Model the fold of this input.
Amino acid sequence: MYKSWWKILGAVLVVYSTVFGFLSSVPALPILHQSIRNLYFHVPMWFSMIVLFSVSVYHSIKYLSNNNEEHDMKAVQSVNAGVLFGVLGIITGAIWAKFTWGQAWSFDVKQNFAAIALLLYFAYLVLRNAIDEEQKRAKIAAIYNIFAFPMMVVLLFVLPRLSDSLHPGNGGNPGFNAYDLDSHMRMVFYPACLGWILIGYWIYTLLFRVSSLEKNKTA
Amino acid sequence: MKKLITTVLMLMVTMQLFAQDQTSAITDTLAGSEKIYVVAVCAAVILLGLIFFLFSIDGRLKKLEKKS
Amino acid sequence: MQLIKEVKYLIGKEMLLEWRSKYALNGVVLYVVSTVFVCFLSFVSLKGVTWNALFWIIMLFASINAVSKSFLQESKGRQLYIYTIASPLALIISKTIYNIFLMLLLTLIALGFYTLVFDYVPEDMGLYLVATILGSLSFSTIFTMISAIASKAGNGGMLMAILSFPVIIPVITVLIKLSKNAIDGLDRSVSLDEIGILLIINVLVAVFTLMLFPYLWRD
Done:
């Protein structure tokens, strides 16, 4: 957590993907045109959100097994960081949708379910605020977090495959792999995902460190 | 470098477009130039999100400094 | 074997308590019937998609009311008593089974009254019945666990709604799709996917409930 090589790696990857996201060549597509470049900005948000939520579940499980307060704090802070990325993902998605599908909220399954998945984690944060006693709060929140995680997986990965979606790869739309994610785009897309995941993890560690400092000061 | 500067300029242009609140104009212009501005706006939103995060951390650190 | 004995005993106790007061069942049935009647007075005639959506909305609120009683209404003293005589696994299994029976009874009454009042029968009534049975099954498994969490958090009804809605929405979307297939009278093989998903969600929820409840129960 305190080493800096992966932070530098994340920063380099994000800078690389931003610069080449604007400059590299993209295949000519109808409707999307150049906005296909949003793939390097919008999609990595979701990847880092999912990674952060998984980190949170990991720490919740750890908390239940050894009752160490540090794990509880890690679980909350990674949810906070994940929510930040989720909101960014929703906003960029809405902007992109406005100019390609015509409406900011196009009643697309993935859009709806992503919003619901965020609601799930807002509920988690509300639950934490509702309980005053610290140990009890940590325990109950960890239980809800673990209980909600499989539901989020079902929401984001299973249900969209069942119905039609405007997103690529669902309901008859060909996936990105089929034609548009050519080798040029892969060269930028994968580093972008990795870079943003690292940046997300970095944000989470910063949040965790600040809040543990706050805790030491008040205690 | 030149291209970077043009990117920044493009960003500023879109900001100005937001200033005149005529949605149809924004829609037309943002969708113009093969929709590259859409990407620029999204990148700007992400940057704003990160800056928001910086401010929140800043505020919390300020409180800590006052206490110590 | 000890477990099965305890479960049987607890279900018996639950039924006995219910039989003595008849409060939960009568109250909820009255709630459903009057909601259906209010809907009838305001819509007068309904068909197809709206009929279906309204039914599930009524069932959603009725089941939150019915199932949340299971933990929220238990007094501290009674909880302590149960704690001394039974294992947490037996407790959650018995509560879930009892709630499944309660919900099955409730949904069947509601469906009967609903079709009677609106004088509309789906094309494929058999499949619609399967959908309602699966629906009451998943409502009761999910809400039992969530009401346990909410009661431990000590902040009743409000938290129950906030915590349960994001978790139940995926189930509701699948249920509405399944029952819409029944209303349109599509071939039953089309709906197998949805039935499979619902069963998988139920199994997932059951497994996670059994794993997590012991942590929640011990203080």
